[in-house]
């Protein structure tokens, strides 16, 4: 696939309690904000939130599977989390190519993730590299 500035792709997921639990198993992140409803009810969040890595993981899938696609990895990342992702939210990530250097298989992308209400839960930018098999 040819990659060009302005190209974008999106990917969505529902963040379930099961996914939050699986992420905790993988990473050890058992923050009570993710599992203890009584604790979380006394914070500004009021209800269970997911680990930030779940939203970032959706971006990893978008870059590796959709745009730029197979063989792509992050070489630099900058994320801001303006709002939490609550357990039960549907989040949609959109990535847009802002710079692409074809001969180096490298470029920059901007990202936004919104929840089902259109609230931005992550914004950011990244530099990506697409490993291309050599003949």
From TrEMBL:
GO molecular function, one term: (3R)-hydroxyacyl-[acyl-carrier-protein] dehydratase activity
GO biological process: fatty acid biosynthetic process
InterPro entries, per database record: HotDog_dom_sf, MaoC-like_dom, UPF0336/Enoyl-CoA_hydratase
Domain MaoC-like, residue spans: 9-102
Range of residues in the leader sequence: none
Protein name per its UniProtKB record: Enoyl-CoA hydratase
